[in-house]
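Question (not urgent): is this output format expected?
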Amino acid sequence: MSSIRLQVVDAIAASLATATGLKLYRNLDHAVSERRLPALVVRSGEDRTLGQTIGQIDQQAEIGISILVACNASPETEADPHECSIHAALMASPIFGGISVLMERIGGNWSFELGDTAERTLIYRFGYQTAVTNLET
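Got this back:
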């Protein structure tokens, strides 16, 4: 079994691969080395405890979603439809892996430091709950 955090991240990744039709990676180095563009990279980010009540912990985690595109004349034009699909998929039904989460868009940024590949990274935050005694439930 996996932690609730990882279950949600895995379910988000699967949902986004379906929504965008892009090849999914969980490791940026693998995505860049395979050179199958456009591609999607989903990475776990920072997580934190927000508070605790009797029996449960309120938690929050960030997820980074990168769209890799060819660094051509207009990488923004190429990445934008995928960004729109990602946002729609995340906001349509905030239940991932059977776990209800509160999803929030934090922002995004560009990187052009991957040779001839441009990276548009979107940052989202989701809230979830676990049992005090077990991060898997």
